[in-house]
Structures are given as C-alpha cells and as structure tokens.
Amino acid sequence: MRCLMMEKTIKLISEDGRRVDGRRLDEIRPLTLKIGFLKNADGSAYVELGRTKIVAAVFGPRELHPKHLALPDRAILRCRYHMAPFSVDVRKSPAPSRREIELSKVIREALEPALFLELYPRTSIDVFVEVLEADGSTRCASIIAASLALADAGIPMKDLVAAIAVGKVEGRLVLDVMDIEDKYGEADMPFAMMPSKKVVTLLQMDGHFTEEEFKQAFELAVKGCEQVYAKQKQALREYYAPSLAEVSSIKEG
Amino acid sequence: MTIFFTPKQVVAPGDLLAEGDYQAGENVYRDGKRLYASAIGLAELKNKAVSVVSLRGRYMPKQGDLVIGNVIDVSLTSWLVDINAPYNAVLFASEFLSKPINPAKEDIRKHLDVGEMIVAKILAFDRTKDPALTAKGRGLGKIKKGIVLEVDVTRIPRIIGRKGSMINMLKKETGCQITIGQNGRIWIRGKTPEDEAIAANAIKKIEREAHISGLTDRVRAYILQMRSKS
After folding, report:
1. Is A232 part of any domain?
2. Which one of B55, B150, B151, B158 would you mutate to disrupt binding with A, by most A Cβ within 10 Å of its Cβ?
3. Topology classification of domain B66-142
4. Contact: A244, B163; criterion CB under 8 Å
5. What is the CATH T-level fold of the domain B2-54, as seen in this structure?
6. Dihedral-angle region of residue B136 (phi above 0 means left; psi in -120 to 50 means alpha; beta otherwise)
7. Is residue A179, in this structure, part of any structural domain at all?
8. Least buried of A214, B64, B81, B205, by fewest C-beta within 10 Å?
9. Which chain B residue's Cα is nearest to A245?
10. Of the ranges A7-16, A135-144, A202-211, B11-20, which one carries the lowest mean pLDDT score?
C-alpha cells in the first residue's frame, strides 16, 4: 500500500477503533525475527515489524582501530544506523545524514546498559544496522535486531533490549506507530527497555502528551515491550535448541 | 533458595536462573539475591554454582592454551600474532629462537615472516596487556606443511570428543597428524593432499552436524567411503 496523496481529513482510526491497517489501538504489527541471518558477521539478526525491515550485524569484541579510541577498562560500543537508498519512497542519499548520526547514538545508548563491556577492555564491539525498508519505528526495530545480534555473537549481556513506540493519533494512544500515523498523528514516543530488569534505556518524544496521557503511554509501551521480549526469547531458543544434544553429550564424557 | 531451570535447558540473556544462596558461575551474573543468565547457552547446577555453557562466543586467551597463530607483523625483537581472539598476541624472539639475537645485525624476519603460521602456547594473559606466546617446546614452532582450517570455537570440544574419542578416530582413519588449537584453528598434515582434504572435510562435517547424535560412527563411515573412492 503506497500513499501518493493524503487528505488532511483522512481518518486514521475508524469508528470501531481500527487503524488504517486493521489493527486495534494496542496491537503491534506482525513481528518476524530471524537469528544468524548473515554468515560473515559474528552475530546477526533480521527483523520485520510490519513493513519495516531491518538487518543488524555485530562484530567483535575485536582489536580496535584507530587505537587511541581504546579504553583501558572496558570495550567501546560503536553503532552505525543506516537507511538503504531504496528503503523509502523518495531515494535517500546513501551518505550518513544528521538524523542517521543521531539515531546511531541513540541506539548505542539504548544498548550500552545491557552489555558487560568491562569484560573486554581495549576492544571494540561494532553494531551495524541497515534499514532495508522503512515504515515507521525503525529505531525501535533496530534496537530489537541489534540486541538479538549481540546475543547471537555470544557477547555477555544483562538482558535483551526490547523496544516499541507509542503514539497519539486523533487524540487516542496507539501502540507500535507506523509511518503514516507518525506523519499525521500528534505524538510519537519511541521506547526501549530491559524487561526482566525493569530498566528503561530509551525514551524519546516528538509531539505533545498531557501528563495523564504520558502515564498511559508509558504503561502501554511497557506492555508492548513485554510482547516483543517474549518473541525475542522465543526466536533465540528456537534457533539454538538443536545444539542441545551436542553439548550434553560432551558433558557426559 | 529456588532454581528456575531444568538441567541443560537452553537459556537466553536475562533469564532468571536461581534465587538465594547460589554462586554465579560462567555466563551468570548476580543482581541482589537473584542469578540471571548473561549469554545464550545451556544452564547447569554444580555444587551450588549456577553456570551457563555458552553456545556462541569468541576465543578468550587462557594461560597454557595451545593455539595456532598467524604472524601479522614483525618488529625488531618480536612478532605480532593473530590468534583469533579479541587481542593480538606477542611472540618475543627469545621465545621462538634457540640463540639470542642481535637486532642490530640480524633481521628476525628470516626466521619467521608475516603470513607464516605457528603453533604456540599462551605464556601469560591478564587483559591489561596483550597475551604473550611461547613457541619453544615439544610440538610447538613454525608450521611448514599441511593445512590449517578454522572452525567455531564452541565446536572444539565436539571435535576432540569424549576423552579424545573423535580426534583419535580421525587420526587413525585418515592417517593424518592433527593438532587442535584451543582458538578454533586445526592443523592437519598427512601423507598426501587427498588425505588432508578428507580429514578437513570430516572436521567440517563434525562442525556442521555437531548436534546430531551418533556422530563418531557417521564420520567414520564418511571417511571410509571417501578413502575407498580415492
């Protein structure tokens, strides 16, 4: 579904409380997660959140170049968020934009609290996030993908990081904002947390919420993250379960 | 005092493993009274210590490990060696050459140059400094023939097998000598390149099918079949 022209009067929420893609207000888009998507990376994951499609690749911990960036007591985490030129309707220049540089920083800061960086001093852990198709909530989907890729690389972490956005559309709160709702809605709040630690690692907001709305939005985001988190865990277990027999047979020896 | 997993259960980072008076082992961390997994792997409990056997990860150098390294740089009195770890290792000339050398007169490059591979042991490593190697001793030194292949580090125990059953079978059936580096590199040398190729393919088969039971017998059958062809 591609929207060429948009009337200001279009209804984003129908009378029976359905959104333009038929979702309920507190429903997330179909979420597909694939682990070990790339052969070349130490860890990788592919995420589809509705029409948003993202690949994350993790390298490291590895020797850091340039060397002067190395920290004596811990590893550094480097993130690159990048949108493919074909990921949006109008070609996006492949050069890093201001927005991409900011999102790289925001994603890095959302992941950093989850990692035991002090285990690998003087090294770097590199996360590359490539947006193949963008339909809103790309930073949330990037965090979902990156945290799975980090786990796939075997990098010790406190918890997986789950993320989801909450928005305000036509005066009502909606979970998992897509592009059209972000553009024509009143507010958008990307949110990431470590659910089993109950720690919020990303909270941004664009637009306006009243205090009461913010409280509700926060609750809704936590609920959304828990759904995402359950799927992340399930994807990891399904991918790794076949290795079970291997290690158990060695341990018996 | 509660345990929240069944033995050998696959756990993911953030999974609650235990609560109360337990010790946090490998890939497990403590937060207050609770113990959580910090990596993907299999949970186990041994003498009140909860640990997770990791299914993925990089090689972390440990003192005394046998490793296979690739020389990537030469300085006046030492070599810089890639050992497939987060840190490059250093091999001092005195830990490789039998005689002391005078760097003003002699270029150590003629003994060992960039691109050559060595079998070495880790002398010391503590994360604040790069690991130091020694290539002096039985079975250590420059690799002059044969092939070296790289496998996933977590598969190394499977390639060795229970009390060395897998590796002994490989050596016997292929007639090759095989050296396994703890850093996921394996050095094979046989009488003919064909023998080496059979051994390398058998090891790749083990890496691929590590989780399917009856592996030793299947690999033996595979080697016999390949040998009868050649």
Report:
1. yes
2. B55
3. OB fold (Dihydrolipoamide Acetyltransferase, E2P) (2.40.50)
4. no
5. OB fold (Dihydrolipoamide Acetyltransferase, E2P) (2.40.50)
6. beta
7. yes
8. B64
9. B211
10. A7-16
Contacts of residue B114, defined as CB under 8 A and 6 or more positions apart, other chains included, come to B71, B72, B73, B74
pLDDT digits (tens, 9 = 90+) for A13-48: 999 999 999 999 999 999 999 999 999 999 999 999
Contact status, residue B57 vs residue B63, Cβ threshold 8 Å = no
Indicate whether A246 pLDDT > 50: no
Which class in CATH covers the domain with range B147-229?
A: alpha beta
pLDDT of the residue at B212: 74
A242 touches chain B (CB under 8 A): yes
Which residue from B154, B152, B156, B188 is spatially nearest to B170, judged by alpha carbons? B188
> Is B58 at the interface with chain A, CB within 8 A?
yes
Q: Are B53 and B42 in contact (CB under 8 A)?
A: yes
What's the mean per-residue pLDDT of chain B?
Answer: 92
Establish whether this prediction's ipTM goes over 0.90. no
Domain harbouring A213, CATH code = 3.30.230.70
pTM over 0.80: yes
Bigger pLDDT: A216 vs B98: A216
With cut-offs at 50, 70 and 90, classify the pLDDT of residue A251: very low
Query: Could you tell me if B210 and B155 are in contact, meaning their C-beta atoms sit under 8 angstroms apart?
Result: yes
Q: Is A161 helix (H, G, I), strand (E, B) or coil?
A: coil
pLDDT at residue number A242: 66
| Shared fold status for B2-54 and B66-142 | yes
User: Could you list the residue range(s) of the whole structural domain that residue A248 is in?
Assistant: 31-252
Number of domains in chain A: 1
What is the per-residue pLDDT for B127? 82
Q: Is residue A117 part of a domain?
A: yes
Question: Which of the 8 DSSP states describes residue A17?
Answer: S
The CA distance from A125 to A43, in Å, is 11
Q: Where are the domains of chain B?
A: 2-54, 66-142, 147-229
Q: Which of A65, A122, A157, A201 to mutate to test the interface with B (most CBs of B within 10 A)?
A: A157
Is residue A51 in a domain?
yes
